[in-house]
Amino acid sequence: MTQQTSKKILNIAVIAGDGIGKEVTPEAQAVLDKAAQGDVSFNYTDYDLGAERYLRDGTLLTDEDLASIGEKDAILLGAVGDPRVTSGILERGLLIKLRFAFDQGVNLRPSKLYPGVSSPLKNPGDIDFAVVREGTEGLYSGMGGIIRRGTDQAIATEISMNTEFGVERAVRYAFELARKRDGKKNVTMVNKTNVLVHAGALWLDVMEKVAKDYPDVTWDYLHADACTIFMATNPSRFDVIVTDNLFGDVLTDLAGAVVGGIGYSASANINVANEHPSMFEPIHGSAPDIAGKSIANPTAAIVSVAMLLEHFGYDAAANRIHRAVEADIAENASKKRSTHQIGQDILNRL
Ligand code: IPM
Ligand code: MG
Fold it and tell me: 54 catalytic, yes or no?
């Protein structure tokens, strides 16, 4: 699951992007450099991509950028999005394009309620689960179309594409993760097999097939709607959740909310075959409302570089970051601090 590397220098493409992405990413880089000292070092290349670039010259992601980023070992992404750009343009033209171009079939999104953070739930319990969101298929496939637009006979289709290969890749990853994690050793598949009878059948078939290879891991199934109820009433029941792209998108925002806000939630878009760079990003967006004020919390971006280290097998360095983040949150979660101050406070604990 991790990409063991003998390299002593990893080349990282940095797409700080828009809004608070630009503010949190340098903090994460500083923490990454310090945490990895002695193990590995990083050579960063900045890419001017995102709304600013698009508004300036109409470019989203050129073939040259894509080829150049594809040569790197990994990608660090801050956030993309800007109210001046029509919804969908940056998302499809940049973020999802990167996930697809580099075949990032697993979007791994851990959720943990850190001691010191208050959950909106009255009795949150011990929340520590991970969502394995399929990253390249489902309703994100881009298949479909709209015709007769602007008439009263408009027709639109949006096709959920599910392949045995893509589903198995995500499901296998989930079982491996459940085996490795210090948790309940359980995988919960989430779908809507009662309605999505075609895609749901494929997913269930794959679950049944893959589960046979993991007798030490149990599994269960929840409909997506029922899953939201459990997530809001008993989130500690979950260990690893595996689900399709859109359900995963929705559930991980809910998951972020129950652990006290997506300011703490990080993600890894993983190219499972290690043929292309994987991409590490906080789950939060560019937050235009607080951008430029240096008040964004860099913790999610910092946790995402810990995921980068884990990806390359530097578990000790990753754990140093996790411990520093936990200690920082436990002591300071309620204090008002600037983006840089939080970054420094975490860095100083390494
Ligand atoms: C996420 C985001 C993206 C997604 C958007 C910005 C395209 O919501 O990473 O969860 O839908 O995947
Ligand atoms: Mg989302």
Answer: no
Q: Is 336 a catalytic residue?
A: no
The percent of residues in the chain predicted with pLDDT above 90, rounded, is 96
Question: Model pTM greater than 0.90?
Answer: yes
At residue 96, what are phi and psi to the nearest 5 degrees?
-70, -30
Report the separation in Å between the CA atom of 244 and the middle of ligand 2, taken as the mean of its atom positions.
13
pLDDT of residue 262: 82
Q: Is 249 near ligand 1, meaning CB less than 6 Å away?
A: yes
| Residue 1 banded pLDDT, cuts 50, 70, 90 | low
Instruction: Report which protein residue has its CA nearest ligand 1's atom 11.
Output: 249
For residue 81, the ligand closest to its alpha carbon is 1
Q: Which one from 103, 192, 214, 264 is the annotated catalytic residue?
A: 192
Helix (H) or strand (E) holding 224: helix 224-233
Averaged confidence pLDDT in the chain: 96
Gap from CA of 254 to ligand 2 centroid (Å) = 10
Whether residue 94 has its Cβ less than 6 Å from ligand 1: no
| Nearest ligand, CA 140 | 1
pLDDT tens, 58-91? 999 999 999 999 999 999 999 999 999 999 999 9
How far apart (Å, rounded) are the C-alpha atoms in residues 264 and 300? Answer: 4
Q: So what's the pLDDT on residue 263? A: 85
Residue 2 has pLDDT above 80, yes or no: no
210 CB-near residues (< 8 Å, 6+ apart): 168, 171, 172, 175
